[in-house]
Amino acid sequence: MNDNIEENHSEQIVDSFLRNLPPVDANGLSVYDKWWIKHFEYFKDHGYMMRPRYRPGWKPSYNPEKVFEKLDAEDGQEMIHGDVMDALRMSDSLVVALKLVKVSTGETRMATFFSNDTNNHNPRNHCVRILEVLPLPDEDDKKILVMTWMRPIMDPRFRTIGEGVQFFKEMIEGLQYMHENNVAHRDCSINNVAMDANAMYNRTFHPINTKKRYDWSGKVLHHSRTRRPPRYYLIDFGQSRLYDPSRSRPHEYALRSGGYMPPEGLEGTPCDPFATDVFLLGNLIRTSFLDGDPELFEPGVSGFEFLRPLVMDMIAEDPSKRPTMDEVSSRFSQIVDRLSWWKLRSRAIKNSEYILSKPFRATYHIFWTISMLVLLKPAIPCPKPLH
């Protein structure tokens, strides 16, 4: 009976998803696609070239009724979010994200605040940098934020414990920096952290099918995070708030983030937004690394149990008992300082890894680790300073 209930629930989710998909024309273009196509010349004039699918007069190179043909074609790769488009910056071939935002949300103000001259080159600032803000000639209430195109943090996989430590360090440091500047993110879940992985790739990867080259000429290969360290960023500041440091910080109602509602949100009790941020970051580490997330089919990664005491304090039900980001940062540094070099260089193993492959992966890892030692690569990757 339970199986039937779960099956019916799954069918309801799929039906709901399909009903909410925007209608498409004969070429498979939705109203969102057509909005971007309408603005193609505007973005081109500002130095940004969208892919062939989003150019005026485009016709599919495949049969739109055949799903597998579409998946195999470059111009069949649709944007993931209707308000975010990828494009090539023509001056240097950098793949960027063009994000459509409403002025009323305040996201433009928050995002550009951490990209100004004061904050832009601070190494502790891990908020995504805004390269340019474009006004829209026909929509005064909206703007376009231009930023480097990012990848999900779990793709490609973490190879070592030290690589994971780099990610935790940058996220803790980044959220601490936001709080020092009297800003609460309020939505810092796994959905709103991303990785600038361009350093890891010799060839530009495709923004939608990230295992392929941008020009669709084959698979794209990458170096490890240890050899070519990426950078991690907090993104999406649509719910962020900047507070007046001369006044007592107001309590806010918590928001559902990444599929999780903080305890204070479940109770409907306003709370210090900084304490809610601490919960959300701790929950990110718990669900993406320590325990996994069954809702997202994320199995978790073994080897990070040394963080559990800190994480459990970060996700305490009583917000007043959670550490501040300054305390999180201090405790994290102390924990990492106690880790041996061999622990940091040991494998970060996905909990879903096939058991029979483990001996072979472990053997390969030993030889790979030797190569990293020969190349003098640190156990905790250290990205090059921003220029």
UniProtKB/TrEMBL annotation:
Keywords: ATP-binding, Kinase, Nucleotide-binding, Transferase. It comes from the Eukaryota. The keyword Transferase applies. The keyword Cytoplasm does not apply. PROSITE patterns: PROTEIN_KINASE_DOM (PS50011). InterPro entries: Kinase-like_dom_sf, Prot_kinase_dom. Residues 70-336 form the Protein kinase domain. GO terms for molecular function: ATP binding; protein serine/threonine kinase activity. This is Kinase-like domain-containing protein.
